[in-house]
Amino acid sequence: MKNLLTALIALLLPVLASAQFSISGKITNQAGEALPGATVTITNPAVNTQADVKGNYQITSLPNGSYTIKASYIGYQTTTQTIALNGNRVINFSLTNATFSAEEVTVTATRAGKNSPTAFTNLSKKDLQKNNYGQDLPYMLAQTPSVVVSSDGGTGIGYTGIRIRGSDGTRINVTVNGIPLNDAESQGSFFVNLPDLTSSVNNIQVQRGVGTSTNGAGAFGGSINIQTATRRDTGYAEINTSAGSYGTVKNTVSVGSGLLGGHFSVDGRLSRIRSDGYIDRASSNLQSFFVSAAYYGKNSTLRANVFAGKERTYQAWNGIPDYIIGDNTLPNNRTYNELGLMPDGSYYKDQVDNYQQNHYQLLYDQKLSDKLSFSGALHYTKGKGYYEEFKDDEAVEDYGLTPVVIGGTTISNTDIARRRWLDNDFYGITYALKYLPQSNLNFTLGGAYNRYTGAHFGNIIYTRESAGIPPNYENYRDDAKKNDFNIFGRGEYKVGDVTLFADLQYRRIDYSFLGFDRNLNNVQQDAKLNFFNPKAGITYEFDEHNNIYASFAVGNHEPNRDDYTNSTPASRPKPENLKDFEVGYRTSGDVFKGGINAFYMLYKNQLILTGALNDVGSATRINVDNSYRAGIEVDGNVKITKQLSWAANATISTNKIKDLTLSLASYDDDYNPLTPVTQSFKKTDIAYSPSLIVGSEIVYSPVKNGSIAFVSKYVGRQYLDNTANVNPAGISTSPDVADNPYAVNRLLRSYFVNDVRLSYSFSTKAIKNIGLGLLVSNVFSKKYEANGATYPEVDSGTLVNYNYYFPQATRNFLASVSLSF
Hints:
Elements: H1 2-17, E1 20-29, E2 39-42, E3 47-50, E4 56-63, E5 65-72, E6 79-85, E7 89-90, E8 93-95, H2 102-108, E9 119-124, H3 125-129, E10 147-151, E11 160-164, E12 172-176, E13 179-180, E14 201-208, E15 222-228, E16 236-244, E17 248-256, E18 264-275, E19 284-296, E20 300-314, E21 320-321, H4 322-325, E22 352-367, E23 372-395, E24 404-406, E25 409-411, E26 413-438, E27 441-463, E28 473-495, E29 498-516, E30 522-543, E31 546-557, H5 561-565, E32 576-588, E33 592-613, E34 619-639, E35 644-667, E36 673-685, E37 692-700, E38 706-715, E39 718-719, E40 731-733, H6 741-744, E41 747-748, E42 751-762, E43 769-777, E44 785-795, E45 798-807, E46 812-820
Parallel strand pairs: 1-7, 1-8, 12-15, 40-45
Antiparallel strand pairs: 1-4, 2-3, 2-5, 5-6, 9-14, 10-11, 12-13, 14-15, 16-17, 16-46, 17-18, 18-19, 19-20, 20-22, 21-45, 22-23, 23-26, 24-25, 26-27, 27-28, 28-29, 29-30, 30-31, 31-32, 32-33, 33-34, 34-35, 35-36, 35-37, 37-38, 38-42, 39-41, 42-43, 43-46, 44-45
Subcellular location: Cell outer membrane
Protein name: TonB-dependent receptor
Domain TonB-dependent receptor-like beta-barrel: 314-778
């Protein structure tokens, strides 16, 4: 028997020696949240893999033996375990936050933290990618609290807009890796110039209210703080294609080297998006790329980013006239776009906006000691382009020309095609020094110096008759310069369960522009502004998962380019001042996380929209002495079952102007001045400020890696001007269709729209991940308008309002396929 047993063991030894086992598990943070994309590495043999979207990983085909397993993730401390493998093992990792992560310094300097007394929402790469079918970046933020988005073309592709707490894009501070994105003059952020930026974004924080000190334009409604792609330790290649309604196609290719030699990485993306748009002739042809190269030292990171976007969009920025959209007998009453219409009934094919913007960033982060770290960035943005348009029967004198006589006929008016150019440069430096002398105390000193130069000029490229205009005649030129300097210091001190927060910022602006002086001469002028923006707050922690907070912040904001150039020193708007009071409660648990926030935003000299637009779709604004926004924001996410979750948010607010007087000049048919038409209001609603905004997203996962989401958005009534739709005697509406509800009511009706999103992913031996997605937007085909404008005009003493609207697409879909290698 002994000899038989020995023989059997000898026969089994080769089998036992060749036995193959696996190591699997899940990687989470200390809160139990999955860390998708975390890297798991073993040595001898050298094998690494990445965790899936749920944080799970698996390494197979390992012989028995001793192994050292290392789990790492950006922003967390690397954890190592050594095991003896003699069978399949489950090894889970719970990673703790790193005391220093080089690539986080730049971004966290201007971000709110877990205990900050600020209302904010964090969005991870996973949150963004589930909605990334090619729509503009504002649509990725549409389900965050107090946010309303709109699209000129009706599909979310091309020119889009975003409002936070009723404040438009000129009041929303946007940074990319801590570098300002807002245009220095108009102060808006034009995401159309960076199509498919979402595909290169790692995470976004949306702050509401004044928020923390940041670089660039003042935050009067909120901040959008974007961090682009960070380190990925393993190489990858990804292909993503979306296609759907209105001829929409998106193609994206992304590649990355992973970590080379333990120090280097290179990542790149190339994208193309094309769409016809829901509105007639609202097409978009967009291209972009993103390249990032980084060097990782023991205590430092050096990263260079180069990214650019080019857009050519047919103009749809004037919307649809009320008398068209209200006429249901017209087959295209909701999609009619009259821009570019020529006398012969055809449309000018080059009625387009054509612009390219290139961004260059050099980011450096250094750990100086265990208590001190530094980040700095150099940046340069080059923008150049024009919008071209056809203008019917223009007076040549308006272009600085003298009428000419051709064949005995004086040519004083003619049809023209013109281009209005913007050639600008924006460059500067940002920095942040973070000091943590002890675990309960930290300081951040940061700031920036940025310089902008912009050349505004126009060309006439075509006339019906020569009219004495040479080819590419330049009819105007306006050069502007702006220097923007800021420095801020922020500190947090924790005493027991209480955290005290203080933030002080000084900002100086020097703006040179061509504008009207007191004698109505158009001359170069300067505006110098100095702002002090203090902030203070307190947070009390009940435990690790629950806290309450309160804060007070002051924000100041300069007028924009049009405010300066379309006025004289006597009528020039004043800077705005905001005092922002916030108080809230946050909770975070395994089943439910959410919060409630109350805000009171008190404005002095707020620049309000009158409802009118100029000829390129820019709003006209005036100062009002006293106005305010007050409301409550509620948001939460509950895991009802393992497969079912529900996220929802709601904002209830009141947005008022006190003692408003509007006065518009009046002229008779011969343009002789008449008595101005005046409207007065004791208290009235601020334009474009709904009192109720609700978002909901119900997600059901019936199978592994598959989900069905039902996404809803309700936006309450919004007014196009600040009269709250009051229509007193002597004030009429668009005369074209007097009984048209769109003409009678100067408002955007409330709307409730619903989307359905399906996703499923799986893998094969050759392809790491195959993702399938379907987005059906406005599934119940609701007819609604998300934006609009009203042009007040006084005709012989009677005020007339001409209203324009931006209808959004009825039921439409986008399908996507993504391949990851």
